[in-house]
Amino acid sequence: MIESAAERKEQLEFNKLQKRLRRNVGKAIEDYRMIEDGDKVMVCLSGGKDSYTMLDILLSLQKSAPIHFDIIAVNMDQKQPGFPEHILPQYLTELGVDFHIVEKDTYSVVKDIIPEGKTTCGLCSRLRRGTLYGFAESIGANKIALGHHRDDIIETLFLNMFYGGKLKAMPPKLLSDDQKHVLIRPLAYCKEKDIEKFAEARGFPIIPCNLCGSQENLQRQNIKMMLEQWDREQPGRSENIFAAICNVAPSQLGDTQLFDFVTLQDKQDKGHLFTRLDVVQID
């Protein structure tokens, strides 16, 4: 069968996309020392485009990496109505990757606590995180990989600024509060649009994220629309915002916990005070 020019072009574009994602993931791993020799990485797989892409790229990098690390794919079945339990086990079995399905009915817990019509994502996420932390311990995984990408990080920055009064986002690498778990976000340098294109081209069996009936956080939707509008009006703005997240100058902000403003004058050089400067008049 002869390949058409359109098919060759499509394959070329896919190859460029895949290389870009591999390069971005590899750079994030290197910049933040996310994965080291001997690591056992628990890749959290939700069935969405982001986590599928993360697993795909990590498996690809694993084959060519100069170090050895293990990958264990883990999905949490939260007993949402209509959740297609067969999709992920079938996909992961065909892929030939080690995996576990953790069953925990957090859906019922969330529904009992959160009033009807309110967003359940926050509580659901906390319950899921606690369960996954515990499971990581049980399988000896010293790294937990999450599928948040560059756009998630930027959106979180503005969510915290506008609604929380804090200047913080999602770090590419994080030590849990109890210091037992290291979370990594290998997609931190990857654009959501690239991930969407890659997931579509690879034909991942996507599982809808709204099976629980909860709508995406309205505040996050508004932030996403704001950023999209900014990028239309001034392309490259998101890149600059993310660059700023990675290039912080504490002395130019106002947090007294990050920079010692209180005793700043103690470091002042006062030797020049009361010295006379010659005044030169310029006609």
Rounded radius of gyration (Å)? 24 Å
What multimeric state do the chains show?
single chain
Question: Which shape, going by the Cα principal axes?
Answer: globular
Please state the structural category: alpha/beta
The percentage of residues in β strands lies in 5-15%
Strand order of the largest sheet: 3-2-1-4-6-5
What summary fits the major beta sheet?
A: 6 strands, mixed
Number of helices: 9
Written as H for each helix and E for each strand, in order along the chain, the element string is HEHEHEHHEHEEHHH
Query: In total, how many beta strands?
Result: 6
Low-confidence stretches: none
Average predicted local confidence, pLDDT: 89
Estimate the helix proportion, in percent.
Answer: 40-55%
Measured between the Cα atoms of the first and last residue, the distance is 85 Å
Describe the protein's architecture and organization.
By secondary structure, the chain is an alpha/beta fold. 46% of the residues lie in helices and 10% in strands. The protein contains nine helices and six strands, in the order H-E-H-E-H-E-H-H-E-H-E-E-H-H-H. The chain has a six-stranded mixed β-sheet, sandwiched between helices. The longest helix is centred in the first third of the chain and has 27 residues, at 5-31. The chain is globular and about 85 Å long. This is tRNA-cytidine(32) 2-sulfurtransferase. A motif (PP-loop motif) lies at residues 46-51. Keywords: 4Fe-4S, ATP-binding, Cytoplasm, Iron, Iron-sulfur, Magnesium, Metal-binding, Nucleotide-binding, RNA-binding, Transferase, tRNA processing, tRNA-binding.
